[in-house]
Amino acid sequence: MIPCQCCRQEYPKTWAWFVCGDCSFRVCSACLGRHSGPYGSGGFKCSQCAFGQMKST
Questions:
Q1: How far apart are CA 15 and CA 18, in angstroms?
Q2: Are strands 18-20 and 54-56 parallel, antiparallel or unpaired?
Q3: Tens digits of per-residue pLDDT, 18-31?
Q4: What whole-number distance in Å separates Cα of residue 15 and Cα of residue 38?
Q5: Angle at the Cα of 32 (from 41 to 14), degrees rounded to 5?
Q6: What is the chain written as a DSSP string?
Q7: What is the mean pLDDT of residues 1-26?
C-alpha cells in the first residue's frame, strides 16, 4: 500500500496514480484537481517542482 502525497489515503501500488515525471510527486486520481504546493495547485502541472508534469501510471 502506498499513501497519496496529498490526502494520505493508502492505495495499492497498481492504483491509477498521477506521478510527476521530474520529482516523482504522487497523487491519487481524486487529488489531481486539488493538490497544492509552492509551484501552483491542481491539474497536470506539478505543484511541487517548477517544470514537472503529472502523468497517469
A1: 9
A2: antiparallel
A3: 999 999 999 999 99
A4: 26
A5: 145
A6: -EE-TTT--EE-TTS--EEETTT--EE-GGGTTT-EETTEESSSB-SSSSS-BEEE-
A7: 97
